[in-house]
Design goal:
- By secondary structure, the protein is α+β, with helices and mostly antiparallel strands.
- It has one domain.
- Helices cover about 35% and strands about 15% of the residues.
- It has three helices and five strands, in the order βαααββββ.
- The strands form two sheets. A three-stranded antiparallel β-sheet has the order 3-2-5, with no helix packed on it.
- β2 and β3 form a beta hairpin.
- The longest helix has 18 residues.
- The chain starts with 6 loop residues before the first strand and ends in a 7-residue tail after the last strand.
- About 5% of the residues are buried.
Amino acid sequence: MQIFEERLTLRELIRRRIHQEVAEHNAATPAPRRLLVQPTSTERALNGEPAERSHRRLDAARQIALAEEAFRRNGFVVLVGDHQVEELDDEVDLRRDTEVTFLKLVPLVGG
């Protein structure tokens, strides 16, 4: 991702990443199923599959709202360099060699 500012809030950084990912998703065409044996349209209907798979478009504003809520619920953390950013409105310093890491947190099963 290219960012030209030296300082941004974490909220803006997340917003830009999601806009980029949604644009890439919406521009992509669904990959055809590459199976050795293709089910017939009758078999697809019996299995409850649509005859043609549609490519669902994403809404960037909705995805941004979901990401902000996930961040607030500790669904993921963001590291800028070796520093964890705690709040959406915290400003982060971005240089050419700055590495930003988004870590999704997954609860452990049984504990």
